[in-house]
Amino acid sequence: MKLYNFFRVEFVFLLLFFVSCSKDDTPATSPPSTPVVEKITWPLGTPKLKVVGKYLQDPCGNIIKLHGVAMTPSPWFNGGAVGEWRWNNYDVAGCLQYNNAIIDKLSDAKQGWYLNYVRLHIDPYWTNNLGISGIQENDISQFNIERFKDAIDKVIIPLIAHAKTRGMYVILRPPGVCPEQIAVGGAYQDYLKLIWDYISKHPSLKNSDHLMFELANEPIRIKLPDGTYGANTQAHFDQLKLFFQPIVNMIRANGANNILWIPGSGWQSQYKGYAVNPIEGENIGYAVHIYPGYWGKDNNDPTVFRANWNENIKPVADIAPIAITEIDWGPDKYSVWGKGGLTGTAGGWGFGANFKVLTDESANVSWNVLSPENLIDKGSVNGGIAYDNNPQACANAVNIWFKEYAKKLVICK
What's the total number of domains in the chain? Predict the structure, then answer.
C-alpha cells in the first residue's frame, strides 16, 4: 500500500508538471539587456623605466611601449599657426594653463584619449634674447643661458610635473633644431653640451622617474675629417658617435641616468651605421622621425615602406628601443606635415596602417604624433577629433589605436 501511494503521488506530480509546462509554448521574454560599458583604467602610473636589451621595461619587468604627442609651449605652436592666438607676450600663466589643459584632455579616457607621454620642446621663444625676430630655429646666435635657466624653472619643470599627475612620461628635447651641417668640436656640439650639462645637474630633472632626454632634433649632415659634409655612410655614423658620445658621457658623469634618445642623420631618418658602431652606455635608445615621403620614396606602398624600414630603422630597432618622436599623415587637403600619406590598410596601400604593422612587429617602438593639432581640431581644448575624423588621416587612426594599446598595457603600480 505504501509503495502504491508513493507511485500515485509521483504520477500526480509529474502530470501537473507537464500540464503546467504546456500552457504556453511561447519562450519567456528576457528583460532588455544593459549595454556593457568598456572600462579601461586610465591614466596609469609612471614608474621609472630602464632599457633592457632592445626594450623599455618597468620595475616589474613588463615591456613598455609609450604612445603620445609632441608639444611646444610657444604662442605660434599653441594656436598661432592655425590663427588662434591663445596666449602671447611671455605669459607664463597663460602658457601653463593651455598646455596643462591639453595634457589633461589627451590623457582623459572619458574624452576618448589614452596618451601616456609628451615629447616636450624647450622652444627658443623662451631661450633667445628678447626683441629678436626673424631668425630660424637652427640659429643659436641669440641663445641666452639666463633666459634658458629661467624658462626651465618657470615653464618646463611645471609642465613636466603636471604630466606626471596625468600618467604621462616626458621626452625632453633641447631648444631649436640642428643646423644643416654639424661637426665634432663645432659650435653646435658645444651648444648641446651647455644645454645638457645644465639639465642633467638640475635637481628637479636629474633622475626624475618619468623624464627622458632626446639629445638633439633632426641632424642632417655631419663633417668628415677630410672637411666634406654628408650622411649615411659608416664614416658619417662614426662621426655621429663622436658627436653624441661625449654628451652621453657628460650626462652620466653628472650622475644622471635618465634614458637618452639618440638622433640619426637625414632629419632623423638614417640609423644603420649605429648598429655597427652604437652609442655606448646604459639606458640608450634611438629617436626616429618618419613621414610618408621620407627616403625620397612613397611610403604608402607597403613593399617600399618595409624596405626603407629594414634598411634604415630595423638595424637599431634590433638592438635598442626606438622612439618615433615625429610622425603624422593625411590626405593633401589637410594641414599635416606628412601630406598625401593615407591610413590605408595593413598589407595594402597606405602609410599609417603599414607603419603600425612595422612597429607592432618590432615590439619595442614607442611613438608620438607631431602636435596636438594632429589629434584634436585646431589643437583646441574643446576640439573634436581632427581632420573631420577622416579615417584616412592620422587623428582617427591614433584615437582608435592608442585605446587598443591602452587595453593591453600592464605597468607596475
Answer: 1
Query: CA 367, 370, 374, 377 torsion: positive or negative?
Result: positive
Q: For residue 77, give the 3-state DSSP assignment.
A: coil
Residue 10 inside a domain? The answer is: no
DSSP-derived 3-state class of residue 251: helix
Max CA separation in the chain (angstroms): 119
- Cell representation of residue 240: 655621429
User: Which of 287, 86, 291 is closest to 172 using CA atoms?
Assistant: 287
Range of the domain at 250: 46-408
Distance CA 136, CA 99 (A): 24
Q: Which residues of 23-41 are buried (b: 16+ CB within 10 A; e: fewer)?
A: eeeeeeeeeeeeeeeeeee
CATH number of the CATH domain containing 398? 3.20.20.80
- Which of 400, 379, 381 minimizes the C-alpha distance to 391? 400
The Cα-based distances of 60 to 53, 63, 103, 147, 183 in angstroms read 15, 9, 26, 40, 41
Closest CA to 196 of 220, 180, 213, 179: 213
Find the radius of gyration of the CA atoms of the chain: 27
Cα(143)–Cα(281) distance, integer angstroms:
30
Q: What is the pTM of this model?
A: 0.91
> pLDDT tens, 14-71?
333 333 333 344 444 555 555 455 789 999 999 999 999 999 999 999 999 999 999 9
Tens digit of each residue's pLDDT (9 = 90 or more) over 96-150: 999 999 999 999 999 999 999 999 999 999 999 998 888 999 999 999 999 999 9
